[in-house]
Amino acid sequence: MLDTVIDIVAGTFMIVGCLMSLAAGIGMLRFPDLLSRLHAATKPQVLGLFLLLAALGLELRSWVVLPVLALAWLLQLLTAPVSAHMVGRAGYRTRHLKRETLIADELAAVVEAAEQREEAEHGQNGNRDRADFID
Amino acid sequence: MNIVLWICGITLSIAGALAMVRLAKGPSILERVIATDVLLLIVSAALCVDMTINKHTDNLVFVLLACLVGFVGSVTVSRFVTDRRNA
């Protein structure tokens, strides 16, 4: 009885975890620019992997593998935001974004202030002709 | 469990195909980096499903390593993306 219940829970976890991967795949194609695709891509990394590892732990039914599973998920939980932040930062700096899809660009004021401060310190440098480009 | 295996296999196959389309199309290298990351996650998800269905832990090391490899890869590439067109 208990075995069947655990099997059903594990099966549900696996299907939902795989659907997270599918959501990421659909998001990669459907979303318009880099930053929104980044949002879709981090979905399976955290919740999907957690569900799959939980299903694995439920099916194996041993306490020995639990620390390894927890370590795998914790590593993913720590590294996913950092790598997404790095990619998003590189995308912003190389202007791989669609400004018209942004509701608020909170970084623009900071960048503007930094450029003005730089101009006040070093004078007019001249390389201010960088325009946004959208692929 | 057989039905679950089929559903997961079909879902992950579609997801992998979509990620590969983005990997081929992706206008800039950053899009390709995210697509590669998603593809790596799909592979490790497939390994997790395999381990769950067949009740073994042989591929757990790869799932652990995939997290680190994906992290190092995307951080390295985005570190060296410069302000050049299609760089």
Automatic annotation (TrEMBL), chain A:
Segments of this protein annotated with the region Disordered: 116-135
Keyword Transmembrane recorded: yes
InterPro entries recorded: PhaG_MnhG_YufB
Domain of life: Bacteria
Organism this protein belongs to: Paeniglutamicibacter psychrophenolicus
Family statement: Belongs to the CPA3 antiporters (TC 2.A.63) subunit G family.
NCBIfam families: CPA3_mnhG_phaG, PRK12674.1-2
Lineage per the UniProt record: Bacteria, Bacillati, Actinomycetota, Actinomycetes, Micrococcales
Keyword annotations: Membrane, Transmembrane, Transmembrane helix
Transmembrane domains' residue ranges: 6-29, 41-58, 64-88
Name the UniProt record assigns to this protein: Multicomponent Na+:H+ antiporter subunit G
TrEMBL record, chain B:
InterPro entries: MrpF/PhaF-like
Keyword terms: Cell membrane, Membrane, Transmembrane, Transmembrane helix, Transport
Membrane topology designation: Multi-pass membrane protein
Localization in the cell: Cell membrane
Keyword Transmembrane helix: yes
Transmembrane segments: 29-49, 61-81
Transmembrane helix as UniProt keyword: yes
Family that this chain belongs to: Belongs to the CPA3 antiporters (TC 2.A.63) subunit F family.
Protein name: Multicomponent Na+:H+ antiporter subunit F
Organism: Paeniglutamicibacter psychrophenolicus
